[in-house]
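User: Fold both of these, please.

Assistant: Here is the first one.
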Amino acid sequence: MLWVFIKDRLLYIVCIIVIVLLAVSLLMLEMARYPGMVEPGTVYYFLLLALVALIAWFTADYYRQRYFLKQVKEALARTNDLQASAIVTAGVTGEQRLVMELLQEQHRAFLGELSRHRRSQELHNHFALQWVHHMKTPLSVIHLHMQEGAERGWSTEEEQRAMAASVLEETERLTRGLEMMLHTARLDKFELDTHIRRLPLHELVRTTINNHKRLLIRHSIYPKVEGELWVESDEKWLVFVLQQLVSNSIKYSKHKPGSKTLAFRLRELEDGKAELAIADEGIGIAPQDISRVFDAFFTGENGRTTGESTGMGLYLTKKVLDKLGHGVKIRSELGAGTTVILTFRPAGIHVMA
């Protein structure tokens, strides 16, 4: 530690020695020009004083900075400790204090990034557990049907059709669950998996409806598409969002008796933006839950009522739309239905988050 201190000030020492030697040289010249003006002992005394002053100054400076150097040495020894830089707190010079301030800012930034990473990892792990739990249900239903068929068979064609329809519905649930898991994994590399282009939104809506037509028919939900619209977005991610929203509408509408309407209204706004409103006639959302529907794993009253919610559908929808630069908001009336409104920027003004 002492050698590091001396080595760091070697240039200062050399400069001071050069200055002292120059001063002595001038005195020697004066002695040569004016004999007897300066005694040789005076020169030796000057050299001794200069040496003592130099040693005293460096000794005092070393003891002043010794604690700081000790802290740095201890921090360097703790190579596997992420908090090591936090122990360096005894800077005495302006440069040292600037370095400490930089270290503290970097440390805070690192801890913030680490916290975000841990939160993301916790969300991913929790979602994986939730996903596995929810995927067990359709697998159990399919296994039960197959076991029943193997043991006693199906006596009538109607029973066979009912079994096939049930198995198909559970298979579709598995497919949607797998798609959600895959898209969740891709969110971390969103920018590498995105291609923005002009898309016919009305056609994507109709494709999404067609993908859910079996469930819509089974639960007496009748889709209605109003208007046509072209928007700039990524087709794959936008279809994922539409699938989540339609799936949610079906999930929370099927328990209401009678026929229901699922309306898709596409229109251009006066400010050049475009809007898609998806309105169902389901059970609606409790007023106290509206502000939290986009939170991860939040299921609210509906989750406790239906038992089918993962709390991830709307969370992922919001994340994807934010990254695409689209807006989303929800209006709902308990017992009357829910309307989800997607807002798209004007053409050519797309900025991906």
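And the second sequence with its predicted structure:
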Amino acid sequence: MKVSDLILGPVIALFGVLVMVAATLQPRPIFGSGYGGGFFPGFIGTGLLLAGLMLAWTGWRSRDTGPLLVMGAWARSPVHLANAATVIAALIVYILASGFLGFLITGAMVTFATLWQFTRQPVMSLAVTIVAVIVVKYIFQDLLLVPLPLGVLSPFAGILSWR
């Protein structure tokens, strides 16, 4: 799929502004550190804004007269459409279920489902899912001190701290 830089640039820039605004709404620094929950999203938003502006500028300078949107051959492939739908469904399921089920269960479910859709190898998908969920949990919750929802595993909070 090819989208004109004149369309894609402003969309990315606007998304960058939205990320920057959302970053300013995050809680202030915790534990005496110099940065809070919006520190890294602020950098990402700034990068998206600058990239979008540069893309729009490049598109404007080239004065491309071609179509604004050209769909690729993959857009007619059932497998590729199913892959795209799986990613979107995984994000929606995580957003809706992680508060109740918790990160470990929901993250494992969506990671396994996505990997299985992409690879069609259930044993490998399960192995990668287990390692990925443990690594992500350790990095975010134990090293970066980002609270991940425990959901139905709340009674086991002391066991799942891994410190």
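The beta strands are 2-3, 69-70.
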